[in-house]
Design a protein that fits this description.
- It is built from 6 helices and 10 strands.
- It is of the alpha+beta class.
- It has a single domain, classed as paralog of FGE (formylglycine-generating enzyme), CATH 3.90.1580.
- The strands form 3 sheets. A 4-stranded antiparallel beta sheet has the order 1-4-10-5. A 4-stranded mixed beta sheet has the order 8-7-6-9.
- The termini are far apart.
- Pfam families: FGE-sulfatase (PF03781).
- Residues 40-258 form the Sulfatase-modifying factor enzyme-like domain.
- It comes from Winslowiella iniecta.
- InterPro entries: CTDL_fold (IPR016187), Sulfatase_Mod_Factor_Kinase (IPR051043), SUMF_dom (IPR005532), SUMF_sf (IPR042095).
């Protein structure tokens, strides 16, 4: 090989290595910034004992809060200390993770495409299926050297109820006040472009534990499998849900249910592979916890 050609080849290889090195450094920086921000946004929750389930018979008119049978067995639960993110995972967070892991970004459904710019803005909750949500939290934990995962149903309800108190709505004052502590229909449309949609995180006052969007802005995936009779046989210490099942628990607000579907004791479930075709429906979100 002639010397000029050899020099050119070496130069190209060196340049390519430099470019890859620069790219790796940028990814590492983005990853560290994401980890740091996520840890800073964690809220410490002191563990303790609480009565999990429909506590309506214990307060006020002594009537059930809901008509649903799956939350009616009021049972004692003891939780260890944990931390939970004050915000849902946003597209800003998930996009960084997806680029590092070389993952495709989920597409928005056909009916939402005209509003894609708003639906997938940086501060909008990321629309994920259960496995995507769990993979993200576990990757974040590994990157931070923390034991991170999706919350258990018990952890979520305990946090939503301000440490297990008899709180009906996970808002700043325990009341359901559209337009003040969660979005009205008009505010939601203005922020997202259409009805039946998430809106950007942190727009309304947090709960007393400083948690945002625990009511009114979509549902969070839980680690637990769902069973309608689980409360009758739940373990007392750090319950994890049934060993197996067909659906996963989701907690929070499902659009269309109004105040009823926003109560802290309201249970819901969805198949974990919702959106498995790569097209995800907004409202299925994630919030990570650190287990201490």
């Amino acid at each position: 090989m002639k010397l000029p050609v050899l020099i050119t080849l070496i130069s190209l290889i060196t340049s390519s290595c430099d470019n890859n090195s620069g790219l790796d450094i940028r990814k590492q920086k983005s990853q560290q910034e994401l980890v740091n921000r996520s840890i800073e946004n964690m809220v410490s929750v002191k563990g303790g004992n609480f009565r999990m389930g429909d506590f309506g018979p214990l307060v006020g008119d002594e009537l059930p809060l809901t008509t649903e049978p799956d939350n009616k067995v009021l049972h004692d639960v003891t939780l260890s200390d944990f931390s939970i993110s004050k915000y849902k995972v946003t597209w800003r967070d998930y996009d960084i993770y997806a680029k590092i892991k070389h993952l495709d970004k989920p597409e928005v459904p056909y009916g939402y495409k005209d509003h894609k710019d708003k639906v997938q803005t940086a501060d909008m909750p990321a629309a994920l299926n259960w496995q995507q949500a769990r993979d993200y939290c576990q990757w974040l934990g590994k990157s931070a050297n923390k034991e991170m995962d999706l919350p258990t149903e018990a952890q979520w309800e305990y946090a939503a109820r301000d440490g297990g108190k008899f709180v009906i709505y996970a808002t700043d004052n325990g009341k359901f006040e559209r337009g003040r502590n969660l979005a009205s229909v008009e505010q939601g449309v203005e922020m997202s472009g259409m009805r039946s949609m998430n809106y950007p995180v942190g727009k309304f006052p947090p709960t007393p534990l400083r948690l945002y969007d625990m009511a009114g802005n979509g549902v969070d995936w839980m680690i637990d499998w769902y069973a309608p009779d689980y409360y009758a046989k739940s373990t007392k210490k750090n319950p994890q849900g049934p060993v197996k099942g067909e659906k996963k628990v989701v907690r929070g607000f499902q659009n269309g249910g109004g105040a009823f579907a926003n109560q802290t004791v309201f249970r819901q479930s969805r198949k974990p592979d919702v959106g498995k075709s790569g097209v995800l429906i907004p409202y299925y979100n994630a919030r990570c916890v650190i287990n201490h």
